[in-house]
Amino acid sequence: MTQTMTENGLILGEDGRARPAWASTSPLLREYYDTEWGMPVRDETGLYERLTLEAFQSGLSWETVLRKREAFRRAFHDFDPDRVARFAETDVARLLDDATIIRNRRKIAAAITNARATVELRGKGGLADFIWAFQPETTPAPETWADIRSTSPESVALAKALKKEGFVFVGPTTMYALMQAIGMVDDHLVGSWRRGSSGVWA
Fold first, then answer.
1. Is 32 annotated as catalytic?
2. Would you kindly state where each structural domain of the chain is located, as residue ranges?
3. Is it the case that residue 26 has pLDDT exceeding 90?
4. Calpha distance 24→63 (Å, rounded)
5. How confident is the model over 33-47, as pLDDT tens digits?
């Protein structure tokens, strides 16, 4: 695969499209970047899935999580909050025995806790409205990877608000990664072929 680097660190692929270096290291990451990262997610199940996967990613590479994504979907019943909220200790044991997912007791427990919190949050308008209420007024326009921050005032506030509602594994850095992934901010580098593709900041 022939690739060249632009002045601001983007990788120009053989298809002529510019992507950040992280999205140019494997076909899986490239597909994720080209089709999903930064696109709006506004449904409860989709957001619960991404909250869960972001928590499991902590300390690991995102590619590791993506490779296990379908296994996670099977193990967590397509991230149906109602079903996961009813998980018992027998389900935790089942998941800890499942070599196709990331086996971490604290993260598994967090997924169950967050499913229950998601169900409870329906009484306050639901997870989607709750998260998107923290969308900033403007989006960054990073020129290089070094310009991309790891938190924002909004991600700090979102993390605090979610914790107040009983969610766990939702720190400011994790929440900023979520905001990037679901299009609440557009952190595609200026010059990337995906910049502005979400429609949120058009």
1. yes
2. 4-35, 44-181
3. yes
4. 12
5. 999 999 999 999 999
62 included as an active-site residue: yes
Q: How many CB atoms lie within 10 A of CB 50?
A: 18
Active-site residue (options: 44, 49, 54, 154)? 54
Decide if 167 contacts 113 (C-beta within 8 A).
yes
Does 202 have pLDDT greater than 80? no
Q: Which of the residues 32, 37, 48, 176 is marked catalytic?
A: 32
Q: In what order do the strands lie in the sheet with 11-12?
A: 4-5, 11-12, 18-19
Q: Which CATH number fits domain 44-181: 3.40.640.10, 1.10.340.30, 3.80.30.20, 3.40.50.2300?
A: 1.10.340.30
Q: Which of 62, 145, 193, 201 is catalytic?
A: 62
CA 60 to CA 38: how far, in whole Å? 20
The verdict on whether 54 is a catalytic residue reads: yes
From residue 63, give the alpha-carbon distance in Å to each of 24, 96, 183: 12, 21, 19
Are the beta carbons of 147 and 174 closer than 8 angstroms? no
